[in-house]
Structures are given as structure tokens and as C-alpha cells.
């Protein structure tokens, strides 16, 4: 008797593969962070190593993405060495009907926002559990904060109606430290009625580096779904 395949894992694999298929030879590709994007990086490496495509280079958004790209044989470059990014592929923790996002579950949202916003096309890859009617429904809003400013930033966020909590490490004593050496505050808002306004307001708090709201950046969302026992890809 064969082991039953996890439907969430299957959706992530198929949507990652669908995104990787959109990359063409010669492209500069932003490589996102997270479990779904990891499959996209894997399949992109498979296409490159098989000769199906050639002459692509990646720009990683995190140490995780960098390690995966090297593992699967994808050459890397930096923003200093290029004048454009053709396509960026990244995941999301929530996606609303306007294709606005909450990102930052992997504490990489600052680098992700830089790379994703520079891409000519930004493709988001998610499974169907990440689709929500309103941002903040299922996931807290991550905010990257300079360590010395943690207390005043949390106080300022409380005045905005948020409930901030310092993100603590797993299998590590103390808080999560980002690739930039900062900390992450996860914030619960009862409702995020105006994501664009909240994104700017939080980023204007002294000590905040970047928050996980991505507004008006996404070009295409590929959603993995299971229908009648089959995995299908829906476009938003």
C-alpha cells in the first residue's frame, strides 16, 4: 500500500513547477523564500541542468534561497551587477482578492520586497490555503525592526491599534534574527481595511526597516488547488 501524498505538499510542488516553466533562457530571476518557492527553485534548476533553458542567473532574497540555488546549480548574481530583473518568483502567507500580500513568515520580507518590486514581472506562488478575503485574517503582520528600537516601535504600533509580539526563535534561545541582523515583531490587527495606508504608516515609524505588506506589487498569482482529487493551477 503506497503512502498517501500530502495534498498541501502536492499543491506546492505543482504551483512551483508552473512558475518555473515561465522562466525563459537568458533571464535574470529573483528567487524568493519559503516552502513553495523552494520547489520553484528546484524545478528551475532541473530545467537548467537538463539544457531545457540556459544562461539564467538568480538573485536570492535570503540565505535560504541562496543555499537552494547553489544546491540546484543556479548561478547567482547581485543587484549591483544587473540593471534589471526579468521575473521574480516568491511565495506569500496571505493573498487578498486585489493580489495584495502579507509576507514575512520566513523573516525575509525586506529583501523580498526589494527584489520583487524591481522585477518586470512578479509571480506569487501559493497553495489555496493562503487565499483570504481580507489581509490579516489568518496571519500576523511581520515588521522588521532595528534591535535598539524594539520598545518604542512596539509602543507606536500599539497606538495604531495593533498587538505586537517579538518573534522568538525555534531551536534557538532568544528572538529571531533576520539576515540583516535585526528582529521581527509580529502584529495582530483586528482589521486591515487599507493595506496601502498601513504599509506606509508602519514604515514611517523610526526604527522600522520594513513590514510585510506588499501592496500593488504583484502581477500574477498562481494558486495550487485540489479539485476532484486532481491538482490544478488557477491564475489570479
TrEMBL record:
Pathway: Carbohydrate degradation; pentose phosphate pathway; D-ribose 5-phosphate from D-ribulose 5-phosphate (non-oxidative stage): step 1/1. Keywords: Isomerase. Pfam families: Rib_5-P_isom_A. It is an enzyme of class 5 (isomerase). CDD domains: RPI_A. Gene3D superfamilies: 3.30.70.260, 3.40.50.1360. GO terms for biological process: D-ribose metabolic process; pentose-phosphate shunt, non-oxidative branch. Belongs to the ribose 5-phosphate isomerase family. This is Ribose-5-phosphate isomerase A. It comes from Moorena producens (strain JHB). The gene is rpiA.
